[in-house]
């Protein structure tokens, strides 16, 4: 591995520890549920999930799990205990 790449890897590790550097605008994730996979998306500050529970409640286990994983990286979406 060349020295230039070693420096980039070290910088990437530092960035990864500084979560406040990252700001999600949109994303799409497939979550493997216990019964079926579910597609979760985040667009313009709002979550969407294709599971039935989300359609009636506006939140579900899939979106809450992602909120927990991304805590502090998505503005305006606090994780509730």
From TrEMBL:
GO terms for molecular function: zinc ion binding. InterPro entries: Znf_SWIM. Residues 38-71 form the SWIM-type domain. This is SWIM-type domain-containing protein. The keyword Metal-binding applies. Keywords: Metal-binding, Zinc, Zinc-finger. It comes from Longilinea arvoryzae. It comes from the Bacteria.
